[in-house]
Design brief:
Layout lengths: L1 E4 L6 E5 L4 H18 L4 H17 L1 H12 L3 H26 L2 E2 L6 E8 L2 E5 L7 H12 L3 E5 L5 H15 L5 E3 L7 H6 L3 E7 L2 H14 L2 E5 L4 E5 L5 H13 L9 E7 L3 H13 L19 H16 L3 E4 L14 E4 L6 H4 L6 E7 L2 H9 L6 E5 L3 H10 L4 E4 L18 E2 L4 H5 L3 E8 L1
Helix pairs in contact: 2-4, 2-6, 3-4, 4-5, 9-10
């Protein structure tokens, strides 16, 4: 059962039956059959279709934003931003697909040698609930332009978004089967991945889900891409522009009510500026207005599900029991609701959940350091490796630190954010493979070498 529940009112918006095994197999077979024709459609035509999707998103931004706000609890302004970012992604790939997929001539002793980029076939996308549109678009658009067909499995709590996505793509393509949303249960995933007509799988989600999918894909010897969790460090050195650092650090941690893999989570502060930075965070927390995410005056919304708020509170409580200090109180105060008021934890040590695990919600953890080396050591002392932010007026020092950090992306004097023009992904337990940019378009293609004697 896929249930769409309003996180604010906790009222059921819509229930959908999960697809049967026969329905799932039919969707796979349809996608494979359509692939044989879709890959032969000139790239120029596929480009025009993606352009039309970008226009449709702009025309219906408010409609889709309201859907995200009702189903996932996202602030309406943030929901609108998500839809427009998807439109930008469509524009970007429509503009660059020809170059990204063009055969690459290689100078060798052969009379002719080149690399061709050809589609693989049916690609499964297992996508999360925190950015139902953006995560799906950044997976699907480059895969579709490359000539693949797509099966989208949305998270169980955002089925309406998944169904809306199938409608958006099907309307633009004027054919069914190129993009299909499948309401499949977790236990159905192994058989989908193992199906001979499925050529690859992309997952954005938890480490537990990523480990399971990678294992299943490995057993079936299928192409796999994982974008998993993160516990991004936000390093603020002594010479940083503190006002900007506080503003951006707060924004990074609080966007989407803290439910973002690349949000700043571990604030590593030089001891000489730490108190001022923490006080700046406290003032910003106290200025928040909690309420209905559809209300423009609301500046912090609910978490997407009550169990998420409860799990986050357990992580905080266990960390405090082990010696962490509450520097600014908050938490899951109303146990009947999904609200989680932001809080700040200090004295966070190894072994605590707040040190070892991803805190997927509005909790700031702060660390005070005496040197750049200590900051780097703490930043790298994590199983994750998604993104990091470094703040310093010394560009040379900041870039030097950036290259020492074991992550997939570093922002200097800015917050980490995904950008269609730059490859996105992590290392270590944050996953493997890259989405977006040239690298993202070439994830699900056959990179074929061709030589002529």
């Amino acid at each position: 059962m896929f249930s769409s529940v309003n996180p604010v009112t906790q009222k059921v918006l819509m229930n959908y039956d999960s697809m049967s095994s026969d329905q799932i197999v039919l969707a796979i077979e349809t996608a494979d059959n359509v692939f044989r024709r879709w890959k032969k459609i000139p790239l120029e035509e596929r480009v025009e279709m993606i352009k039309s999707i970008g226009k449709a998103l702009r025309d219906k931004t408010e409609e889709y934003a309201i859907l995200l706000t009702k189903e996932m609890g996202k602030l309406k302004a943030e929901a609108e931003g998500e839809i427009l970012k998807c439109a930008w992604l469509c524009d970007y790939y429509a503009e660059n697909a020809q170059n990204f997929l063009a055969p690459e001539v290689i100078d060798t002793e052969y009379s002719k040698s080149y690399v061709a980029y050809q589609p693989l076939g049916v690609i499964l996308g297992i996508m999360p609930w925190n950015y139902p549109f953006w995560q799906s678009f950044r997976f699907a658009v480059p895969a579709l332009l490359a000539g693949n067909t797509v099966l989208l499995k949305p998270a169980p709590n955002v089925p309406q978004s998944g169904i809306a996505l199938e409608y958006i793509f099907s309307e633009a393509f004027e054919r069914k089967g190129v993009f299909q949303t499948i309401l499949a249960e977790v236990e159905d995933i192994p058989s989908i991945i193992n199906h001979p007509m499925v050529s690859g799988v992309s997952l954005t989600g938890s480490n537990k889900a990523g480990s399971a999918v990678a294992s299943q894909a490995g057993t079936a010897i299928k192409k796999c891409l994982l974008e998993l969790g993160g516990s991004d460090p936000f390093i603020v050195l002594e010479d940083a522009d503190l006002d900007k650092a506080v503003d951006m650090g707060f924004a990074s941690r609080m966007i989407n009510c803290g439910q973002t893999c690349i949000s700043a989570k571990r604030f590593i502060l030089h001891e000489k500026i730490a108190d001022r930075f923490i006080n700046g965070l406290k003032r910003k927390i106290d200025s928040l207005t909690q309420g209905d995410p559809a209300d423009p005056q609301t500046s912090i919304s609910v978490m997407a599900r009550k169990d998420l708020a409860e799990a986050l509170q357990i992580q905080v409580d266990n960390s405090v029991t082990m010696g962490a200090n509450i520097l600014h109180n908050g938490g899951h105060l109303d146990k009947k609701s999904n609200y989680f008021h932001p809080m700040i934890l200090g004295n966070v040590k190894k072994g605590m959940p707040a040190y070892e695990e991803e805190l997927f919600g509005p909790v700031f953890t702060v660390f005070m350091v005496k040197s750049e080396k200590e900051a780097i050591d703490i930043a790298n002392d994590s199983i994750y490796g998604l993104g990091a932010s470094v703040w310093s007026e010394d560009q040379v020092a900041a870039e030097s630190i950036a290259l020492e950090l074991e992550v997939g992306a570093v922002a200097i004097n800015d917050m980490v954010k995904s950008d269609p023009r730059l490859p996105f992904g992590g290392v270590n337990q944050s996953g493997f493979g890259r989405e977006l940019a040239l690298e993202g378009m070439r994830e699900f293609v056959n990179i074929k070498s061709v030589v002529l004697k």
